[in-house]
Write a structure and sequence with these properties.
By secondary structure, this protein is α+β, with helices and mostly antiparallel strands. Helix content is about 15%, strand content about 30%. A hairpin with a 4-residue loop joins strand 24 and strand 25. Helix 1 runs parallel beside helix 7, helix 4 runs parallel beside helix 7 and helix 5 packs across helix 6.
Length: about 450
């Protein structure tokens, strides 16, 4: 959706959603690559092409438990006239020296075991008597219990074509093939492939470390009793979980009271383990908006100072409420109008300050923090996927003029429709728990009729 024109509210500029996001992303640089052990690299982004050093599988091997045979020896075999072959030994997975299968001979072979020299096919054990001299076998006899130590004779009841039940060398990947391209996010299947081709370590951009702090003297941790005038801290849990969902390593800091010195000290303590700091609450215009106060003070403290965002198209000076270089802005959006962004400390760690209402906080995370995390990971596509969907509702949805509104919705991919969930209040967290999408109402639209088409951001 295109950027809306900048608006003015008195002396303070009203930023568009797109301008603020562009400003955030312009200041984010992907984390430096490091070499990690495979399991530590899960969820990280590969920074180099990985080629296959050896073919997979590296040798012809059996796809069944059965007997390795020569095709000519079992030609025309049937239950009435079975082919009777001498069993010359066992071939198990991991076998080194292999017996050579000559005319009239066979070798017991297990799934994954290398095809021995001379053998051309594998007959499943169910096609044989299993070396017992009886009828069709239902399974393989353990080597320790096999007749005459796996030697003796086996009766084969069916013919086999050449290469039957044989996995060919290189049938998965050939040596020199591209296994994984740079930019790949390493999930379990990719980790499996790296291990299969012998890679013990891999060069990746690490998962960002995100520290989440909620502010407010009224906040109590879940599991503790509520006193009069207090509420449970849900924001830090929601945002820490959202950061993990985005691919980050999240550290949740318990709610910090409305005291600038305490918050300042907490933020400075957390810098050592943060690639990104996220605060929630204390960014509006109230008397106890402690984040503004704390960051303004930090900004004047020399080595732990705060530097602002890239500025983007927003400039600086009297248009923005400054917090020692962290810009505290008003955005043309609902919910989530008050926002803050800058960087802090000697390493210029990015900091995003989100509003404290639960829905405002979560929507702000999805729009601004999640893209920042993905950018730190080095991913080219940082935004959630979006679709166009038809509004399914009993009545028209209202939206404030000049504001981009984000309403909770339930998206039905089958019918291509989206339905509102709950109201528009920024405190309605129960509705958020039942939503799987955000319905986007543009700035220049004040009413959306049922049946109208909307942009829908998919959260799942």
């Amino acid at each position: 959706m295109s950027s809306s024109a900048p608006q003015e509210t008195g002396r303070q500029r009203l930023w568009s959603v797109d301008e603020h996001l562009a400003d955030v992303l312009a200041a984010i640089r992907p984390l430096e690559p490091i070499e990690l052990q495979l399991l530590d690299a899960q969820g990280c982004v590969l920074v180099e092409d990985v080629t296959v050093p050896v073919a997979l599988p590296p040798f012809d091997n059996s796809s069944m438990d059965g007997y390795a045979v020569r095709v000519a020896d079992v030609q025309g075999a049937s239950e009435e006239f079975p082919a009777v072959l001498t069993v010359i030994g066992d071939v198990a997975a991991g076998s080194g020296e292999l017996p050579t299968v000559g005319p009239g001979q066979s070798a017991r072979i297990m799934t994954g075991a290398p095809l021995p020299p001379g053998a051309e096919a594998v007959v499943p054990v169910e096609w044989t008597d299993g070396g017992t001299g009886g009828g069709a076998a239902s399974g393989m006899t353990p080597a320790s219990a096999a007749p005459e130590g796996a030697a003796g004779e086996v009766r084969v009841h069916r013919a086999a074509e050449a290469r039957a039940h044989v996995r060919a060398r290189g049938s998965d990947v050939q040596a020199g093939d591209l296994a994984l391209a740079a930019g790949t996010v390493l999930g379990p299947p990719q980790i499996a492939l790296l291990a299969a081709i012998g890679r013990g370590t891999v060069r990746v951009r690490p998962r960002p470390r995100v520290v989440v702090l909620s502010t407010g003297s009224e906040l109590v941790q879940p599991g503790e009793p509520l006193a009069a005038g207090t509420i449970y801290d849900s924001n830090s849990f929601a945002l820490a979980a959202a950061a993990r969902d985005a691919g980050a390593i999240a550290y949740r800091v318990g709610a910090v009271s409305d005291d600038a010195d305490t918050l300042r000290a907490t933020i400075e303590d957390q810098l050592i383990r943060a690639d990104l700091l996220v605060t929630t609450g204390g960014v509006s215009v109230g008397a106890y908006d402690v984040v503004k106060e704390a960051l303004t003070s930090v900004g004047g403290s020399g080595g732990s100072g705060v530097s602002g965002g890239s500025g983007g198209s927003g400039g600086s000076g009297e248009e923005d409420v400054q917090g020692g270089g962290v810009d505290f802005r008003k955005l043309a959006m609902q919910p989530g109008k008050p926002q803050g962004f800058g960087s802090i400390g000697p390493d210029h760690t990015p900091l995003l300050a989100l509003p404290g209402n639960p829905v405002s906080s979560y929507v702000s995370f999805e729009l601004f923090v999640r893209p920042a995390i993905r950018a730190l990971m080095g991913l080219p596509d940082v935004n959630r996927p979006s679709v166009r969907a038809e509004l399914k509702a009993d009545k028209a949805l209202g939206s404030p003029a000049g504001r981009r509104q984000f309403l909770r919705g339930k998206y039905d991919a089958g019918s291509g429709t989206v339905s509102p969930v709950g109201g528009s209040g920024s405190h309605l967290i129960a509705a958020l728990a039942h939503a799987d999408s955000l319905m986007v109402v543009p700035e220049d639209v004040t009413s959306v009729e049922p049946g109208a088409e909307l942009e829908v951001i998919l959260l799942g």
